[in-house]
Design a protein that fits this description.
The complex is a heterodimer. Helices cover 76% and strands 1% of the residues of chain A. By secondary structure, chain A is mainly alpha-helical. Chain A has one domain. Chain B has one domain: Orthogonal Bundle (Arc Repressor Mutant, subunit A). A three-stranded antiparallel β-sheet of chain B has the order 1-3-2. The interface between A and B is medium-sized, with 29 and 31 residues.
């Protein structure tokens, strides 16, 4: 029972929980809500309160009803907060410098708001490599590289398509991917409940009273 | 340290219990159904090994109700986690001492 065996068991547990499609559905919903937030910033507090306070309870309620009776309950280990390393310090510094450069180039008129809107899908595509790499590490499945790559490529394509007005490039990108993930999540959920019927256990014969 | 000096925890060394311990080691907690599916053990087998591990205080068993049905959740105790780590070190030592 070496490190590799334990890692494989951990990854398998993670994959088990991911089968219900809730990760894709949640991501789809987040992407669909994003354009509304960009258009109307007063939605941000509602979005934050809903996603931070209510969403975990909703997901747990959904899993208690549809997932745990089929594949069992498992609570994965809590993520340890990353220790401040040179790598993290470099990333924070890079983000800080990028923001300063962006604000400076905006202030001297080298780029305009349209330029930023146009290239936002590309930036977001690169950002999505974060969840992509995280899921690859957690599940051990290489197909999650594809998700980061596809989101980056479509981001670049939308940014480079001159016929798409800069103001709606990001909305098209977010709504397109949001609908895709929502559909994928629903399909996975339907396949999940078909594949795993609710299990009867000897425990079920013992009533509450 | 020679192989003779290595002390293997026999309670963990049994294959079914090793599977249960390894599964619980990599997660926070899990219920009976999940453990049955992951380890391939039957309800009765799992129940019997659970009692042994609980007796040694390697796992803690929590019973609660989910939709008015009993629900048993298992979790490794700090003692169990420590015992599993020691077991792994001991097994590594055994293989390290084997002549190549």
């Amino acid at each position: 029972m070496n490190e590799q065996n334990l890692l494989e068991i951990e990854q398998k547990s993670f994959r088990e929980l991911m089968q219900d499609g809730s990760t894709e559905t949640l991501l789809g919903l987040v992407l669909l809500v994003f354009p509304a937030i960009m258009a109307e910033s007063s939605f941000i507090p509602f979005f934050v309160v809903f996603y931070i306070i209510f969403m975990p309870h909703l997901i747990e309620g959904f899993r208690k009803r549809y997932v745990y009776p089929r594949i069992g309950y498992v609570k994965l280990k809590e993520e340890e907060p990353p220790k401040l390393s040179l790598g993290i310090a470099m990333v924070v510094l890079l983000i800080f410098v990028s923001v300063i450069v962006l604000l400076y180039t905006l202030s001297i008129g080298l780029i305009d708001r349209d330029f930023i809107w146009r290239w936002l899908p590309t930036v977001f595509g690169f950002i999505m490599w974060g969840p992509s790499l995280y899921l690859k590490e957690k599940t051990g499945q290489n197909r999650f590289y594809l998700f980061g790559a596809m989101m980056t490529v479509t981001g670049i394509v939308i940014s480079l398509t001159a016929s798409i007005p800069a103001g709606i490039a990001m909305t098209i990108y977010m709504v397109g991917w949001g609908l895709f993930f929502l559909f994928l999540g629903l399909v996975r959920f339907l396949l999940f409940i078909r594949k795993y019927p609710v299990l009867d256990t000897p425990e079920d014969d013992i009533g509450e009273y | 340290m020679s192989t003779d000096d290595v002390e293997i925890d026999k309670l963990i060394h049994e294959p079914a219990r090793l599977k249960i311990m390894a599964q619980l080691y990599v997660v926070e907690e899990a219920d009976f159904i999940f453990l049955m599916r992951q380890t391939g053990l039957t309800w009765g087998n799992l129940s019997s090994h659970m009692s042994k591990l609980e007796g040694a205080k390697y796992i803690e068993v929590r019973k609660e109700f989910l939709d008015k049905k009993p629900h048993t959740i298992l979790k490794l105790t700090p003692k169990g986690r420590n015992a599993f780590r020691k077991y792994r070190t001991a097994i590594d030592q055994v293989f390290k001492d084997l002549p190549t």
